[in-house]
Amino acid sequence: MSSSRTAIGLRGIRKTYGKTTALDGLELDVKEGEFFCLLGPSGAGKTTTLKTVAGLEQPDSGTVELDGKDMRGVEPYDRGVAMCFESYALYPHRSAYDNLASPLRSPRHRLPAADARDRIAAIAELLGIGGLLDRPVGQLSNGQRQRVALGRVLVRPARAFLLDEPLSHLDAKLRQQMRAELKAIGAVQNTTTLYVTHDSVEALALGDRIGVIRDGRIVQTGTREEIWYQPCDTEVARAFGRPRINLLPGAVAADGGFRSADGKVELPISAAASPGTEVLIGVRPRDLALGEGPGHELTGTVYVTEVLGRSVEVTVRLGEQHVSLVAPRADTAGLRPDDPVRLTVRPENLLLFEADRPERPGRRIGR
Amino acid sequence: MTGMTGLTVRKRLLGWLADLALILYFVFALFPIAWMVILSLKPANQLFSTYFSFTPTLGSYRTVLGDSEGIPFVRFFVNSLVVSVGAVVLSLVVGLPAAYASARWRFKGSENLMFTLLSFRFAPELTVIIPLFVLYQKLGLFDTYVGMIWVLQLVTLPLIVWIMRSYFADLTPELEQAALLDGYTRKQAFFKVALPLVKPGIAAVSLLAFIFAWNNFVFPLILTSNEAQTVTVGALSFLGGDRPKYNLTAAAALVSVVPPLLLALTIQRYLVRGLSFGAVKS
Amino acid sequence: MGWRLTLRPYVLIVPALLLTCGILYPFGLGLYYTLFDFSASKPQPDMVRLHNYETVFTQDAFWNSAWVTVLYAVGAAAVETVLGVAVALLLHRSSIVGRVLEKILILPLMIAPVIAAIMWKLMLQPSVGVINHLLKPFGLGGVQWTDTPTGALLSSIAVDVWVYTPFVAILALAGLRSLPASPFEAAAVDGAGWWYTFRRLTLPMLWPYVLVAVIFRFMDSLKVFDIIYALTEGGPGDSTVVLQIRAYLEAIRFQRYSFGISYTIVLWAVVYLAAMVLVRHLGRIQRKAAEAK
């Protein structure tokens, strides 16, 4: 479904507001028909990126390309993109119906009133707001408003959808349901979508590809597997997965293996790093197994256990470090604090990073 | 209610005292208006012989509105209406785009313009009027509507620009951005989205500007003589002459305060922002 | 796009800019006139440089006017502030009486000041005015309100207070209504008394609102004209000749245009300086209030 043509291309975008730099040479390629998730913390430049694509913000330098055409000087209404704002940006003086109808009444996307009515009814049905259409926007809950805002985007044909945290104000259950349904909506399947979120679960669930943005730059782009198994640095590794990835500080020993800072943990590593290099070794909680098994073995004592539904998060003290792991509930029965435990980890699940530095997080240097 | 404690008795007593203090203030605030009503209804022969008991008559109003005594008060009233409405309309046409621009874009000169306008609010009027007095006589604008509407911009323009800027600034620009992406032009986004949302603000500030223009005294005093003179100057002229005509003065004063008072009561909710130039919002 | 984008806001403010220049032009012209000895009797004036200002500053009349102006402005602003805040506090209790009266609070403020002065002039008339009539039972009849220097100044201030107290009250009331409830609830739980709550909570948090009102009132009363023109015309003698009245007399009555404008320029400078000091002070107090919150 995703061809190799670039639908949205950002080339070296810089944007500053006074002294703060919002976008710092941002590069981005979204393929035609792709569902691309842009993930990052607040203030990373996600919204500015969307607004730059839409033509609502003018970059200080760099170019925006849509379908290969330079968009310099093209007004937002001529770019043919639709955007869902995080603040909803619904017209407060109009009803939900009129908000949904707004694009279909505009000079550029006008539909005959009857067709517009059918289209709106269909989209409202999909989003579960069919019964609210007559209400003024002011009488809707935040979750309802957010769905109206999303509907205003989906009712119209567009070259690309730009969605800024479109599910953030829904309650947990509805969010999960909408997340599942969103990609199934015909309009979304057929349209290039650039989806902004700060929620890594959402990004992993939705994105054909994911771009991780930090301080106005894209630090890594890839499929969910690439991002998960080959994070470019410790920050990206920390951003995905709950509980968070375990990162043990240590250094490369004389024999080329890893030795933790307190000397209590030793692991062989595959990467070539000169002895003495300060490193972090990363292992995801779900890749640590309790008890005997294939792979490297570690021993420690139970620090605390916490039940997460059917599985249990166990925090284990390894020397002076704590690591967490997630194990099936059955395997953890009878574990008490200070019980000695054995852990195993497969060598291919070990990630090796440079140590974090004040100016940047540690880069991954090996599996 | 039996068993009231000493505390609640004291509280009630204090409440009554507070109400009494309020009533005292409002007697001070309202008595002059009431007294004007009384004076205006007195027949001339009972003007100085009685205070509160008299035979009411509408004669003073008839005299004032009948243009007797050589004072064309109806014309002054129409003049006030024309120059005040004219000044507000001109300020709106010119001021709304400026208010919108300075609320939406940071650009060179915008703050300078805004502060120059604000300084008009505090400038002594005579600094501008005396040169205008000389200038208008050269240009033939003395005692004309055009001259009055021009000089009243000193009152209405800063008010309208500053307050409308605060209304536009309260409106998130994302609403107009959404309209742009819905396929509307910037002009359409302004007229279909921004303008309807600040309409209550426009109505309120226009009425307030009208009131201030209407109430102005020093401009018409110096820059008009007869043709374009307004009610504020007109009302004062009933006090002139050999015999003070208190009843006529009171009637003229009351007639001239009716429009601003009626308008003021309709815009109560918006007054705070208007009076403080947008500094305080309610 | 580039040039259109940067130009758009300028296109929108051009009309306002032109109109502003239309107002600035006479101001500049006035400034220029003050360098001459332009008057009705001398339509072909000569350049006198700063002579007009020298005359202004060496005249007793100027210093008298300046003194009267300051007395008037300080007196009016002070009384209006105290009275206005008091009225706001009383209305904030929102008793039935208060809710009714609040609706008519603005009436005096919407009456043209000159009309207000006319109203009071009629009431303060010594022989037939209603005020002296009402005071007679208290043995106070026959007060020469506007006919004595002190009485005239106090009467003018009273009219100013009558017109503008609602202004302070409205802003203070808006401030009171926007104060957060939680500190007051906490104080009530702690059993703090009324006076303590007022001194330590209400007043500091309300102060920025009151100060906005005070600044507006002080600056406005420095350039008072209407009220005094209608009530006393500056008399008796020179006792209520504030600066704008003096400027009016010089420029319009005696038709010494250049000299009259010099007065207004000096007043303008004073108002401007006062504004700068007050605005800076306002910034400081608002920061303090923000920290207190």
Key phrases:
heterotrimer, B: 282 residues, mainly alpha, MetI-like fold, C: 293 residues, 0% strand, MetI-like_sf (chain B), Carbohydrate ABC transporter permease (chain B), transmembrane (chain B), BP-dep_ABC_trans_perm (chain B), MetI-like (chain B)
Please describe what this structure looks like.
The complex is a heterotrimer of chains A (367), B (282) and C (293). Chain A has helices spanning 46-54, 96-105, 113-127, 142-154, 172-182, 186-190, 200-206, 224-229, 234-239, 329-332; strands spanning 6-17, 20-31, 35-39, 61-66, 69-70, 81-84, 160-164, 192-197, 209-214, 217-222, 246-252, 258-260, 266-267, 278-283, 288-290, 296-308, 311-318, 321-328, 340-345, 351-354, 364-366. Chain A is α+β, with helices and mostly antiparallel strands and 367 residues long. Chain A folds into 2 domains: 6-236, P-loop containing nucleotide triphosphate hydrolases (Rossmann fold, 3-Layer(aba) Sandwich), CATH 3.40.50; 239-366, RNA polymerase II/Efflux pump adaptor protein, barrel-sandwich hybrid domain (OB fold (Dihydrolipoamide Acetyltransferase, E2P), Beta Barrel). Chain A has a 6-stranded mixed sheet, sandwiched between helices. In chain A, strands 13-12-11-14-20-21 form a 6-stranded antiparallel sheet, with no helix packed on it. In chain A, a hairpin with a 2-residue loop joins strand 17 and strand 18. In chain A, helix 2 packs across helix 3. The longest helix of chain A is centred in the first third of the chain and has 15 residues, at 113-127. Chain B is mainly alpha-helical. Chain B has a domain at 78-231 and 257-275: MetI-like fold (Orthogonal Bundle). Chain B is 73% helix and 0% strand. The mean pLDDT of chain B is 87. Chain B has helices at residues 6-41, 59-65, 73-104, 110-122, 125-139, 145-170, 173-181, 186-215, 218-223, 231-237, 246-266, 271-275. The longest helix of chain B has 36 residues, at 6-41. Chain B is built from 12 helices and no strands. Chain C is mainly alpha-helical. Chain C has one domain (46-292): MetI-like fold. In chain C, 76% of the residues lie in helices and 0% in strands. Chain C is built from 13 helices and no strands. In chain C, helix 6 crosses helix 8 and helix 12 packs antiparallel against helix 13. Chain C is globular. Chains B and C meet through helix 1, helix 3, helix 4, helix 5 and helix 6 of B and helix 1, helix 3, helix 4, helix 5 and helix 6 of C. Chain A: One of its GO terms (molecular function) is ATP binding. Chain A: Keywords: ATP-binding, Cell membrane, Membrane, Nucleotide-binding, Translocase, Transport. Chain A: Residues 8-240 form the ABC transporter domain. Chain A: This is ABC transporter ATP-binding protein. Chain A: It holds the Pfam family ABC_tran. Chain C: It is a multi-pass membrane protein.
